[in-house]
Each structure stands twice: as structure tokens, then as C-alpha cells.
Amino acid sequence: MPDTGNEMSVRDEELNPTTSHAQDQDAFLNGPNGQDGEQGGARVATSDDVAQRADASDDAEETPKRKGFPLWLYALLFVIFDAAMVMVLQWGVTQSSTRVELSSPLLGVWGIVSKMWGEQNYVFLLNLLLLGAIYAVVILLFNRFWLATPVLMAIAIVIAVIERFKIQIRYEAILPSDLNFLGSNTGEILSFSPTGAFWVISGSIVSFTAFAVLCIVLSHMDGRHGRIFRFRNAGLSISLRLILLAIPCLFLTLYINQVATVDSWANTFSKRMGDIPSMWDSVYDAQRNGPLVSFLRQLNPKVMEEPDGYSQETMDEIAARYASDADSINAERNAYLNDNTVVFVLSESFSDPARVPGLQVNKDAMPNIREIKSETTSGLMLSSGYGGGTANLEYMGLTGLSMANFDASLTSPYQQLVPSEHWTPTINQMWGAPSNSIAFHPYEPSMYSRATNYKKFGFSHFYTLQAPDVIAYQDKIDNSPYVSDESTYESALETISSNDDNQFIQIITMQNHMPYNSWYANNDFTAHSVDPAAPLDDGERVSIETYAKGVSLTDDATQAFLDELDSLDKPVTVVFYGDHLPGIYSSAGANADNSLALHLTDYFIWSNTASASRGTKNDDSAYSSPNFFVAQTAEHMNAKVSPYLAFLTELHEKIAALEPPVVNNIQGWDRIPEGQSVYLDNEGRPMSEEDFDEETEDLMRDYRLIQYDITAGKNYLKDTGFMTTPSR
């Protein structure tokens, strides 16, 4: 029945006693009778009164004795429908998968509910609360429960279907960056429909139709027809709805704004409810924590605090200063980076087992690489990860930026930062057209959102195990579930040798990824503790022995790869590095004094015979971190630099390596560890920020300004030539 500000006449009440009685029962919802239209206590009829009497008469004829649902029933139905929508969204991200599991098994639709009593994890209730807040907003906007409910259910079903299709095609959940896609490419969505889409869509339509019919039937039974607020004073009704609307809106706004910020109330609340971020795999993250929680957590990541003095004037001054420094460096150099094909090899979990404190392995697992390191630029790389964090090391290597400068809340730039960036300068872009940038990764392209990010970085092809760019060679060794390094190198070599142009090649291997479960036949590696009183347990020992064999296989494959490159008549330079140690050294990790040793991997920069930099060994290469690799490569090749590379060159002279604080356990994905960042000098000794000289302090201040401008600021450096590297 339409709301009006006029009083019902006595005759209206006589015509519709049921409605009048219901209004008396719902005093809270109906409010006091208005007195509009009265003059000196006498009732003055208006044209609105005529319409109101007609509406009242119509309602009386349509629903002669039907009562409205009580508030408690609305509340119960609200919770039931809210839960149904959460389960619909969960269905969208729950599918069977043939992929190699890197974590615990993926949850089914019911799994997110059952773990409340199985694991005391209440992330289902968190999703229920968040979606309930959205549900309340829609109801308050419509003021029609039986209209708002099917509308929101329709939206949930559409999202779930799209999510299901996206996961089936790309094994990737819906991300905030997809909102940009929907805004500019809506017409292309149907082209992503996978096999069997017709039946999924048909089933969804049938399910929604049944739900809509249910809502219509319940609305017919409900004398209120879902109208929650029926104040006769329209102004009072609207005012109360706006006041109540502010509550869920404020909650959602504050939650979205703060949930990605470490130690905020929203972040703490989410963790206590069971949210365990799993940023390496968007599908697993959505299944484990619910798609709504997973999505909202990524909407507003805290990247960096704005450094003091940040402005266009400051950034112009920085660009000019390092342009002058670049000129000085370039006066002494006669080569160009794009004179060579440069290959970055991120070797999964590669490190020397012999350096692990308290551990003894029966023989050298990396004799070839040890020999290579002795003949060229090489050293130890400080890693921010232990047992994980591959993409962060990869990001630093490709951008020259450091995780040490980011806020503790930014744990995964590939998911939290790159998709929303407007400017993403990466080192591969120094080789010009995208056709000169090729990447290889013998695993799923969706991990760490690599497929999306590599396209944004300017790579023309990203060869993985899935279409459209399928990696050529996929052989595995014995019982290992991962593609061998030999096959990965073979795929890359085919591309390098068949192209006369110089290129940038990115390789991310998978052979030595965890877990390590006695994969290899005839493994002759053995490991034991140097302390007889503290022997390795069987699980740790088997993992270490399996891993050591994998390192040995990588050592042989890498030597063979370099031998093949050496036979080419085109100049090639290779940057090889292990991203982190495997998270298997529980005995060594129990001692906090071993933290530095458990975060040092091996790296080298090598050039083939056709390159003028063959046999070069940089003097300052004993220690490094991946953000410095591109500057070191330019030094190794005697190549001219951009102002940005000039800056990195100067910083590396003062600080050999820097990373965020490190820990001896596999890093979680809800924060960077607390404490001071790790800085090493050229001899590998830790440095304290308090002991920096003035020049080092100035360089670090400039680094934060540069990184903030690129990632979270206004990109003042973009048009200054700061990233422009001289080329032939």
C-alpha cells in the first residue's frame, strides 16, 4: 500500500479493518498518525485523500485478511537467504582440478562451513557478515524485501557463473583488476564461455527462476509484500532508512579501506575469523577464505607511506641529478644493454646445501655452477623469502624496486599492486618492442597472476603449461610432478637460437619446487646433522636428500644450457639466481642466529664467447639482492645506463644487498615480518640504518621517493627520461 502523509479516514478503516489492525500491531514500523491537512481540528479533504481511499479499498479487496510477516521471520529469512548467496558464490570458485597441489586440498562448497567445527575457523561467518551488509544496503534502498532478495541473488548467480568460467579457462579467480576489463570489454565476455557453458547457464537460469517463484509466493503470503518500513510520513520513513543505511555502508567502507592494512581493526578481525591469505593462488585463496573476503582484501592495499617532500619539483630534481650521473658513467662505457640477448633465470629454490648451518651432505651438489661462479661475476644473493615468496624476488629482479621499501601490508606486488598500476616500467622494455620480450614458466600461468602481469610488463609471449602459449618441452624426471630444468632450458634455447634479434628472455623454473618426496630413482645423496646429539628426523632427512639430488640435476642442466649458448654466434648474457632456500631445514631454522645463512642463495652473471663481456668479473659482486641485478648486468657488459640504472649503481656501491626483515619459517601472506630491514655491506656484514653515512641516507631517501612515484604516486618520473636507457 503506498505511503502518504495523510491520515486515513474512519471510513477507510471500516473498509479495511485487517490493514488497520496490522498497522496497530506494527507500531514501531508504522509510527504515529500524521495530522497533515487538518485546520482547527477539522479534517480537510484533498485530492491525495481520494487516491489514498482508493488504494486502501484496492488493498482490502486484494488481501482481505492477510497479515504481514513479523520482524523475527524477516530476520530468519534474511539469514537463510544470505547464507544461500554465500554458498552460491562459493560454488563459483569450487571445481575439481588436475593441477599439482602446492598446499592443502582445495575445499568443496560445504568445506567452508564444516571447518567451523572441524578447525574452529569462522571465515564462513565473515563472508556471511560482509554479504549481509551488502544485502541490508540493497533492502534499505528498495524498501522491498521481496524485490531486493531476488535481485541480489541474481547478481550472486551471475558472479558465480562468471567466476566458474574464468577458473575453468584460466584457473584464476575474479580479481579487482577485472573491473577494468568489464568496464571496457563487456562485449567480449561471451567469448570466454568454456565447454559446457550452456548447461551451467541453463541450470543457473532454472535455479534462479525457482528462487524467484519462491519469493513471489512468499510475497503473496506476506501482507506487507516485503515493505519493511511503512511510515505514513514519507519524510520520516526516508530519514530512518538513510540513518540505518549509513550503518552497513560505514562498516563496508571501513572494512574495505583497512582490511589490507596490517594490524588495523579490520585486518585483525578478519584473521581472528579465520582469514588466511593465500596470495600465490587466487583460486585457492577464494576457496579457502571465501570469494568475497578474498576479493575485498585486494581492493585497497596499502603500498607505501608518502615520503616527506614528495612533489613534482622533488622528482624533477632527482631525475636531473641522476641524468647527470648517468652521463658521467656512460662516458666510461662503450656498450649497450641491447647489444646482447639477456636471459634472466630464476631457478626455483636453488641454493647450496653445503652452506646450511649444522648440516653435512655427502658430496657437492653443484660443482659446475661453483666453477662457473669462480670465472665470472657472481656471489651470494640476499633473499626476502624462505621456502616461498618466489614472485617477490622475481618482481624485484624485473623492476629494480625493493620489497624493503614497501609497507608491511604489501606482501605480494604481483597481486596487490601490479594489476592496478598505470605505469609499470620493467627492464625487459629496454629491448624495445614486445616481440623482443619472451618468458617461460613450466607451470600454470595464473599463479601469482603472472599471465596478466607479464602482458602488462610488455612480454609478447609467456610460455606455460596452458594455452595460448604452451611451452614446447615438458619432460619430468622419475616421479617428480614438475617439468625438469633441462626441458625448460630446451624450450628457451629453441627460441633464442631461432631469432637473430637480441631479446630479453625470462625463465622461471619449477623442478625444485616443494615438496620433496623421494622423487628420484638411484639417489646417492645422503644428509645428516653434524651434531650426533641432534640427528635429523626422517622427514627432514628425506626432504634434504631429495632436494640435493634436484640441485645436482639443475647443476648439470645449467652447464649444458650454457654450453649450448656458447656455441651460438650471437652475444648472450645470463643472469642466474636462486630465489630462496627450500623450507625444509627445520633443525637449522630453529636457531634464530641462522637467519642470514638461510636467506642467502647463489647467483652469477655469465656471457658467452660471442659476447664482448665474456669472463668479466665485477669487483662488487660478492653480495647482492635482485633489485641490483640489472645495474650489475650493465656493469658486467660495460653498457651505458639510464638515470635509474645510474642510481641503482650508486646505491649498490653503498649497500650491497637489502631486503625486508627475514624469518626462519615460510613467510605468510598477511604481512612482511616485523623489524628493521636487512642491509649488507660488500663483505656480507649486516648494516644498521643508524650507522648509514649521509650519502647512504640520501640515496635511501631517493630510493623511497623513486619507488613511491612509480608504484603509488603520480608518476612524475614517467616523462622525464628517467627510465630511458641508451640503445644502439
Describe the protein's architecture and organization.
With 728 residues, this protein is α/β, with parallel strands linked by helices. It has 3 domains: 10-62, no CATH class; 71-297, no CATH class; 312-719, Alkaline Phosphatase, subunit A (3-Layer(aba) Sandwich). Helices cover 45% and strands 8% of the residues. The chain has helices at residues 10-15, 17-25, 27-30, 47-62, 71-93, 111-118, 123-142, 145-170, 178-184, 197-221, 234-258, 265-273, 282-289, 291-297, 312-330, 367-375, 390-399, 413-416, 450-457, 485-497, 538-566, 586-589, 629-636, 643-654, 694-711, and strands at 38-39, 42-43, 341-347, 359-361, 377-382, 437-440, 461-463, 504-508, 527-529, 572-578, 600-607, 623-624, 657-659, 678-680, 686-687. Strands 7-6-8-3-10-11-5-12 form an 8-stranded mixed β-sheet, with helices on both faces. The protein has a 3-stranded antiparallel β-sheet with strand order 13-14-15, with no helix packed on it. Helix 7 (123-142) packs antiparallel against helix 11 (234-258) and helix 15 packs across helix 24 (643-654). It is globular and about 90 Å long.
Helix content: 40-55%
Strand content: 5-15%
Going across the major beta sheet, what is the strand order? Answer: 7-6-8-3-10-11-5-12
CATH architecture of the largest domain: 3-Layer(aba) Sandwich
**Number of individual domains:** 3
Low-confidence parts lasting 5 or more residues at pLDDT below 50?
Answer: 1-63, 97-105, 183-190
Determine the CATH superfamily of the largest domain.
Alkaline Phosphatase, subunit A
The tally of beta strands, per DSSP, is 15
Described by the principal axes of the CA atoms, the overall outline is globular
- Label the structural class: alpha/beta
**Mind telling me the CATH class of the largest domain?**
Alpha Beta
